[in-house]
Amino acid sequence: MGIEGIGARVARKEDKRFLTGLGRYVDDMVVPGMKHAVFVRSPHAHAAIKSIDTKKAKAMPGIIGVLTGAELKTDGIGNLICGWMIHSKDGTPMKMGAYSGLATDRVRYVGEAVAVVVAETRGQARDAAEAVEIDYEEMPAVTDAVKALEKGAPQLHPEAENNLIYDWEIGDASAVDQALDGAAHVTRMKLVNNRLVPNAMEPRAALGHYDKAEDHFTLWTTSQNPHVARLVMSAFYNVAPENKLRVIAPDVGGGFGSKIYVYPEEIVCLWASKKTGVPVKWVADRTESFLTDAHGRDHHTEVSLGFDADNRMVALKVDTIANFGGYMSLFSSCVPTYLYATLLSGQYAIPAIHCNVRAVYTNTAPVDAYRGAGRPEATYLLERTVETAARELGVSPADLRRKNFIREFPYQTPVIMNYDAGDYEASLDAAMREADYAGFPARRDEAKKRGKLRGIGMSCYIEACGIAPSQAVGSLGAGVGLWESAEVRVNAAGTIEVLTGSHSHGQGHETTFAQVVASRFGVPLEQVSIVHGDTDKVQMGMGTYGSRSGAVGASAIVKALDKVEAKAKKIAAHLLEADESDIVIENGEAKVAGTDRTLPWFQVALAAYTAHNLPEGMEPGLKEGAFYDPTNFTFPAGCYIAEVEVDPETGHTDVVQFVASDDFGNIINPLIVEGQVHGGLAQGIGQALLEGCHYDPTSGQLVTASYMDYTMPRAGDLPSFQVSTTNTPCPGNPLGVKGCGEAGAIGSPPAIINAITDAIGNNDLSMPATPQKVWAAMRRNQ
Amino acid sequence: MAEISMTVNGRKVTGTVEDRTLLVHFLRENQGLTGTHVGCDTSQCGACVVHLDGKAVKSCTMLAAQASGSQVLTIEGLAEGGELHPVQAAFKEHHGLQCGFCTPGMIMAAVDMIRRHPQGLDEKTVRAELEGNICRCTGYHNIVKAVLAASEAMSGKAKAA
Predict the structure, then answer these.
(1) What is the pLDDT of residues A176-208, one digit of tens each?
(2) B76 and A18 in contact by Cβ < 8 A?
(3) d(CA A675, CA A684)
(4) Helix (H), strand (E), coil (C) string for A424-450
(5) B125 in reach of chain A (CB within 8 A)
(6) With contact defined as beta carbons under 8 Å apart, do A195 and A323 qualify?
């Protein structure tokens, strides 16, 4: 590695603009003539719309337009869809209810958009939004997915009888039942994975601009995947054909999954711009974000894990009910199926696994992928169950895990996945060393003297990243391919621009991708620029989610670099009068191996563009594109160990030590990778201790709709983390990388809960483990 | 409407704003200083922190008219002579930012925190002091590291001077 190349701890190139207030987020964009949109939203969780009267609102000062769903329909704008087809076990397709960008006859969750007001100022738009008169007839609401399946529950969509979207299964049910019947010990648990709100710090925003002269639309939006947004808006929502729609996702202030999807507001702002003749900007306030961003998790699960007399796992049975909210969000259907049940083998050799999943409509905000998406849910249930089993069997949790680890690769699980590489013992050992696992009893005794209950908890996670070979995901129902594109443009004077279909919203691609390029040719990092997030600049891409930018996005760059290098070598060989196979390009020059004959990189580039002296028949220029389709998922894995101290008087939990040992394969920039782990850990610890999205079960009102009510992790809630890595390179991609964006959020919740239940000696504890819940659990002991 | 005037990043500015205009909106929309962000509307997240007469305030929690006559410093005015302020430099060196949205408020709060603790800072104090600034990306680990490093660098500088 060079000082700036692959593996180097380089400070980020993109930081300067953010540090000096010069980042450009959607809300910072100003277009001449731009006006402001405010949405009129349902105050009810479930109601029929009897009438909408916009007359009074239209007469208010500064109003340019008040638009409703009826007009949206008349103009032929299509309903929102879920783009991943899941079939129930009886072979029927999932039951997708109609989802209009603006509700026309019925609302199904608090905050659902019903009308939009466009005005000179945001204040005027807000005032007028309050004057839109909507006559609602309230209907009974249901917010809990288990209750929504019960007889007599309020029914949401005529398409989905009993609110059931699909009833899906994977694995061999009879083999599992048989193995559990014959098991020496079965650990059974009922677990809830608490509903979360992603809470990117930048609220969602959209600026739609219709250019009448060109009959062309531009959308600036807070998106993790602007190309997918353009595709979906063109192909399904009929907003505009792709060649008449430019989507730009500039600086985006965090996503965590919530900015993958196309939301009603983006479609409506584009449509409203044409309708009103002015550019239309909408920016969510925080409560709107809470009400309308796609939420995460919300599973109810029953699990049984069987062991033989030697404590080897024989079978795992899982039955899950997943809350989907009032409508199916863009990728919602794949989260509790192919991103969840396929990971249930964890790090263990389990011969038989069966999982059943029922997806259910409720009167809550749509639920979709949130950091980890399915994998945190799988890890939470498996790692709490394994830890519980160790306690029931009276063996060390580390030993029980170690005994059941998968040790040979590739390993085919009973639930689709084929793990390509890993060394689970290495990360377990590294974490135990770092945590001084052996010294825990002494620390517990010392804490006891101070009146604190100290506990230790472990979690060994696996995740699947990159998602995934396009043909494979297509056969599983995906509506899109999951490849990535790249174009490497070497300019005439040797600087390099890389166009990527990945999107950076905090991940630092402008640095890591540049490191990959700098490594290849030995050019300085500042001579490499990364271009992303604009459909006019980058032709097509699939965006950033599922920890895929390194494994898939950077692999596409490598493929394009291969082509550039091959052509550059031909040019250099011609100019240096050497054989092509003798040319090496490094340290910013092409040289003939074993000689002192060299040619600076910029001269190779210049020669490509002057075209005065190129090899016979060669086209001028030095620019190559590539599409990379992954051959498999990648499988990062690791071991996390948490130590907590609980105050027995108050039930308050302090995380006093947190150790993370991750195997991400090869690492391009350790500084950035560590940052990704830190952030993931904070979100996972937030889920375990603090965060819980709560709807009032009767009214369906979101009770936790601001930072006064929803507990975000703050600096004082968290410790400094001890993070380190082990490395089994990924054999499936050219860089050997696996992905690191979600691991922290996947592995940490069970480690924390296992530590608290260890401390208090009561395993009956759900997330978030608030002081009240921990205190109550301790009292149940007595 | 209210007539207001104030000094922003050393420059005298005036404006006519709706009475209900918040300071943050005056800075962003009237002055084009979009480095100050709105993240929550309830004074919780701190993305909007600026300095008012030398003290950190949440600019989403005061009317522009209330700031009339004051000296306002925003993130855009922090770096001097093209060189990053030590707190900005420390955030870069220690990777104390990811998406960058909370960063301006975080930095303005950190500068104020370091000013109020000339004797130096420890991790516990920094974490407690950051109570009013929410970051969703970094887990605070590297922010805390950056603030401690900046505090040390600045006290070193003060001693040297």
Answers:
(1) 999 999 999 999 999 999 999 999 999 999 999
(2) no
(3) 14
(4) HHHHHHHHHHHCCHHHHHHHHHHHHHC
(5) no
(6) yes
Using CA atoms, how far residue A408 sits from A198, A357, A413, A419, A739, in Å, is 37, 30, 12, 9, 21
Bridge partners for A663 per DSSP:
A637, A726
Distance CA B104, CA B112 (A): 13
Question: Would you call A117 helix, strand, or coil by DSSP?
Answer: strand
DSSP string, A221-262: E--S-HHHHHHHHHHTS-S--GGGEEEE--B----TTTTSS-
Whether this model's ipTM surpasses 0.95 comes out as yes
Q: How far is A40 from chain B (nearest CA, A)?
A: 18
**Chains A–B, number of C-beta pairs less than 8 Å apart:** 185
Give the class (CATH, top level) of A483-628: alpha beta
Q: What is the CA radius of gyration of chain A?
A: 27
Helix (H) or strand (E) holding A217: strand A216-221
User: A706, B88: Cβ pair inside 8 Å?
Assistant: no
On whether both B44 and B95 belong to a single domain, the answer is: no
User: Is-contact A53 A124, C-beta < 8 A?
Assistant: no
Query: Could you give phi then psi for residue A621, rounded to 5 degrees?
Result: 95, 160
Closest CA to A274 of A214, A346, A359, A196: A214
Residue B12: domain span = 2-77
A727, pLDDT greater than 50? yes
**CB-based burial label for A93 (10 Å; 0-12, 13-18, 19+):** exposed
Question: Which pair of tokens denotes residue A190?
Answer: 């009922």
Closest CA to A756 of A737, A739, A746, A771: A771
Q: Is the peptide bond before A250 cis (omega within 30 degrees of 0)?
A: no
Cβ contacts of A305 within 8 Å, gap of 6 or more: A186, A187, A188, A313, A315, A316, A317, A382, A385, A386, A389
For residue A71, give the H/E element and its range.
helix A69-74
Q: Measure the CA–CA gap between A94 and A160, rounded to whole angstroms.
A: 9
Chain B: residue nearest A204 by CA?
A: B39
Candidates B151, B89, B144, B28; CA nearest to A23 is: B28
Sign of the dihedral defined by the CA atoms of residues A320, A326, A331, A333, in that order: positive
| Cβ contacts of B141 within 8 Å, gap of 6 or more | A675, A678, A718, A720, A721
Q: Which of A715, A653, A659 shows the shortest CA–CA distance to B138?
A: A715
Pick A299-467+632-781's CATH classification: 3.30.365.10, 3.80.10.10, 3.40.190.150, 3.40.50.300: 3.30.365.10
pTM: 0.97
- Distance in Å, alpha carbon of A695 to nearest chain B alpha carbon: 20
Please state, in angstroms and rounded to a whole number, the distance separating the CA atoms of residues A619 and A420: 40
Question: What is the strand order of the sheet A623-628 is part of?
Answer: A528-531, A496-500, A484-490, A623-628
Instruction: Give residue limits of the domains in chain A.
Output: 31-139+202-253+259-292, 299-467+632-781, 483-628
Chain segment A436-495, per-residue pLDDT in tens: 999 999 999 999 999 999 999 999 999 999 888 999 999 999 998 999 999 999 999 999
Tell me which residues of chain B, numbers 39 to 98, contact chain A at a CB-CB cutoff of 8 Å. 39-42, 44-45, 47, 74-76, 78-79, 84, 88, 91-93, 95, 97-98
Amino acid at A547: S
Q: How far apart are CA A23 and CA B146, in angstroms?
A: 20
